[in-house]
């Protein structure tokens, strides 16, 4: 099976999900005073690596915010699974649930089937990160096929600081077409 990948510089698709408080949220649309957004796709409640990473990500929330970037994390879990997961999470950024198979495919995610009912009861996405710029375009992305691949957050913050400085005039990378 092959996936269709989104390309750097392309429009981030308007995907509607629900936040843990029941409110609708459009991925890729920055909230508040932020003009960029980091969309974190995680596997779900069943993944202890995701739990650990989301809790670590919280400690970087202010660094992202200082760069004008808000955070949102989303999974294919249902509302009940997210509610249960929140008990082991210590995050203050929005968590969303209900990512559908069609939405996962539109993001070009790798999708896994649970190994057993003990893991979870639905297909789920493998981790991905999308930094959506102020024009609604994908500035940076990372799509993994296993839970063990996550960006180094210190390096990511440093890169974003560099990109966001107007004097650096840093373009979206990886946009060259194959000839």
UniProtKB/TrEMBL annotation:
<feature type="domain" description="Thioredoxin">
    <location>
        <begin position="6"/>
        <end position="165"/>
    </location>
</feature>
<dbReference type="InterPro" id="IPR000866">
    <property type="entry name" value="AhpC/TSA"/>
</dbReference>
<dbReference type="InterPro" id="IPR036249">
    <property type="entry name" value="Thioredoxin-like_sf"/>
</dbReference>
<protein>
    <submittedName>
        <fullName>Redoxin domain-containing protein</fullName>
    </submittedName>
</protein>
<dbReference type="InterPro" id="IPR013766">
    <property type="entry name" value="Thioredoxin_domain"/>
</dbReference>
<dbReference type="Pfam" id="PF00578">
    <property type="entry name" value="AhpC-TSA"/>
</dbReference>
């Amino acid at each position: 099976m092959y996936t269709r990948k989104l390309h750097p510089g392309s429009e981030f698709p308007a995907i509607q999900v629900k936040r843990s408080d029941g409110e609708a949220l459009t991925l890729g649309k920055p909230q508040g005073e932020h003009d960029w957004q980091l969309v974190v796709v995680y596997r779900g409640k069943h993944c202890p690596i995701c739990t650990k990473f989301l809790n670590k990500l919280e400690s970087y929330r202010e660094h992202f915010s200082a760069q004008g970037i808000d955070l949102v994390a989303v999974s294919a879990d249902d509302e009940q699974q997210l509610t249960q997961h929140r008990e082991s999470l210590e995050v203050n950024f929005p968590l969303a649930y209900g990512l559908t198979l069609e939405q996962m495919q539109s993001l070009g995610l790798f999708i896994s089937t649970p190994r057993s009912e003990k893991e979870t009861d639905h297909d789920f996405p493998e981790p991905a990160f999308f930094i959506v710029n102020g024009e609604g375009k994908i500035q940076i992305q990372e799509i993994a096929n296993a839970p063990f691949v996550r960006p180094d957050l210190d390096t990511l913050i440093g890169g974003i600081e560099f990109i966001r400085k107007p004097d650096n005039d840093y373009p979206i990378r990886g946009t060259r077409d194959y000839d």
